[in-house]
């Protein structure tokens, strides 16, 4: 068969499309939409038609500076911008389009948060706990007592809990638990007499 003599498209836009097509089968639609939006931030900044071959250490420096100056670094998704950018650059390197920029994983490219976390009052916590039940109450308690976020809770399995340690602690407090009712979102326990 004859091979095309046309050079492959080296544009950032074309490689961004290839990257999105590569990860599409294993990525949830909402996540893919977010990755596309974040990747588009870089591709638009650099220029869709610019050559992917020009992505180097200087590009990494300039892109992080651009994110800092345009406020994107202050958003709640600043770490996902960095992660999406890094994965795309790694994809380019793995496909031998560029040499891996040596500063891609530099600690200098961590975004500082300028917002202070909001402290929830005791009254707000009590109000929250009195107005939720079932699984949602369990999730709220895991967040409050264990510092878990929704991603941590989503990874939990029944085998994640050290039931022996929990049983010893509950027995020391004269409480005995019989089982965890995941459908109701609570630990079924009874006080030892």
Describe the protein:
The chain is mainly α. The protein is 51% helix and 7% strand. The chain has 8 helices and 2 strands; from the N terminus they run ααααααααββ. The protein has helices at 12-23, 29-46, 57-69, 78-94, 122-130, 134-146, 150-155, 163-172; strands at residues 175-181, 186-191. Strands 1-2 form a two-stranded antiparallel ribbon. Strand 1 and strand 2 (186-191) form a beta hairpin. The protein is elongated, with a radius of gyration of 24 Å.
Give the oligomer, counting copies of the same chain as homo and different chains as hetero: single chain
Number of discrete helical segments = 8
Tell the overall outline: elongated
Rg: 24 Å
Mean pLDDT equals 77
Q: From the helix content, strand content and strand pairing, which structural class follows?
A: mainly alpha
Sequence stretches where pLDDT stays below 50 over 5 or more residues: 1-7
Strand arrangement in the largest pleated sheet: 1-2
Largest sheet: 2 strands, antiparallel
What is the helical fraction, as a range of percent? 40-55%
* N to C succession of SSEs: HHHHHHHHEE
SSE blueprint:
Elements: H1 12-23, H2 29-46, H3 57-69, H4 78-94, H5 122-130, H6 134-146, H7 150-155, H8 163-172, E1 175-181, E2 186-191
Antiparallel strand pairs: 1-2
């Amino acid at each position: 068969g004859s091979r095309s003599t046309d050079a492959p498209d080296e544009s950032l836009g074309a490689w961004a499309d290839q990257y999105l097509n590569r990860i599409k089968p294993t990525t949830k639609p909402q996540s893919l939409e977010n990755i596309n939006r974040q990747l588009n931030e870089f591709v638009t900044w650099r220029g869709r038609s610019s050559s992917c071959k020009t992505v180097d250490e200087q590009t990494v420096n300039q892109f992080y500076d651009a994110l800092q100056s345009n406020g994107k670094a202050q958003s709640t998704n600043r770490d996902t911008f960095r992660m999406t950018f890094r994965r795309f650059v790694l994809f380019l390197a793995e496909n031998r389009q560029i040499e891996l920029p040596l500063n891609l994983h530099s600690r200098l490219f961590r975004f500082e948060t300028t917002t202070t976390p909001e402290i929830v009052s005791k009254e707000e916590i009590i109000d929250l706990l009195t107005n939720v039940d079932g699984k949602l109450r369990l999730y709220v308690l895991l967040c409050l007592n264990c510092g878990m976020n929704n991603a941590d809770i989503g990874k939990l399995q029944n085998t994640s809990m050290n039931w022996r340690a929990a049983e010893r602690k509950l027995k020391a407090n004269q409480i005995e638990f019989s089982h965890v009712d995941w459908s109701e979102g609570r630990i079924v326990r009874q006080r030892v007499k």
